[in-house]
Write a structure and sequence with these properties.
10 strands; four-stranded antiparallel beta sheet; 5 helices; DNA-binding
DNA sequence: ATGGTCCCCTGACCGC
DNA sequence: TGCGGTCAGGGGACCA
């Protein structure tokens, strides 16, 4: 579910509510997520949350004992609620604070994760990740270099976390449309100026999406329970058959790398 | 290394 | 109303 804008929206929503708070209890009602919920989570009890960071689509909660690494998978969301609010079936984990609130993880599909590390950026799942889209190294020259010789679809390149992080299925389609690039085009056969447009488009789209609080299609909700409103700004995603906002041509849907892909056959080459 | 496929899981939706 | 099939925002594991 959540791509970078949704995870960042979540981070910004929960951070002011949990930063500096002391943890008084951990309540794991269902430990069977993608991997078992890390038993070390209990080490948070008696410490406080010193920082709430994001790396790629991971959220990192830092304490003096170590860091929680959270991933929301396809259907995860986090809310801060009064701890006497009864959890629903898919509310799997609570981190309970001293002010009678808790950080509550909901994840119906259980593709998410709650892991633990002393040095989260060096964790196996994080250490080989590519740059953040907002990092200065992510530009047209970088993308062009990483694409050299690659025959796979440019959309797959954009969604490859070793190349750049945070761009998931929605924003890959949106960015390619904004840049006028056909999603199926072989990555190694796109010229530098077009990659410059693409890297600009990725940053632009992600920035806008964060401004709207992310995109809610079904599961995603922000820390306050509200949906993200970028859904109304989507140009192509989930709009097969509808007119391209730029040229009016009917948008198409195809499958690339097992994922639904949306594009305009006229604007994108 | 690269590219392609499968799968983890629950729920919503659609056609019959 | 029930039932089966399809699809969903991620990404690790495995194969050639």
């Amino acid at each position: 579910m959540p791509e970078l804008p949704e995870v960042e929206t979540t981070r910004r929503g929960i951070a002011p509510l949990i930063l500096g708070r002391s943890v008084v209890a951990i309540d794991v009602r269902e430990k069977r997520l993608r991997w078992p919920v890390a038993p070390q989570l209990k080490r948070l009890v008696g410490t406080s949350i010193d920082a709430v960071r994001r790396r790629a689509k991971y959220l990192l909660l830092d304490s003096e004992q170590g860091s929680v690494i959270m991933h929301l998978g396809m259907s995860g969301s986090l809310r801060v609620v009064p701890c006497d609010v009864p959890p629903s079936v898919h509310d799997h984990v609570d981190i309970v604070f001293d002010n009678r609130t808790c950080l509550r993880l909901r994840d119906p599909r259980r593709f998410g994760a709650v892991l633990w590390s002393r040095d989260p950026l060096q964790h196996k799942l994080l250490k080989s990740l590519g740059p953040e889209p907002f990092d200065a190294v992510f530009d047209g020259v970088y993308l062009h270099a990483r694409a050299k010789g690659r025959k796979a679809a440019v959309k797959s390149l954009l969604m490859d976390g070793r190349v750049v992080v945070g761009v998931g299925n929605i924003y890959a389609s949106e960015s390619l449309h904004a840049a006028g690039i056909h999603p199926r085009r072989a990555a190694g056969r796109i010229a530098l100026p077009r990659y410059q447009r693409l890297s600009d488009a990725v940053r632009e789209i992600l920035t806008q999406a964060i401004g709207f609080g992310g995109t809610t299609l079904r599961d995603f909700s922000r820390a306050d329970g509200k949906p993200g409103y970028f859904r109304h700004e989507l140009a192509v995603y989930d709009r097969a058959g509808q007119p391209c906002p730029a040229c009016g041509t009917a948008l198409r849907q195809e499958t690339i790398g097992q994922r639904s892909t949306y594009y305009c056959p006229r604007c994108q080459h």
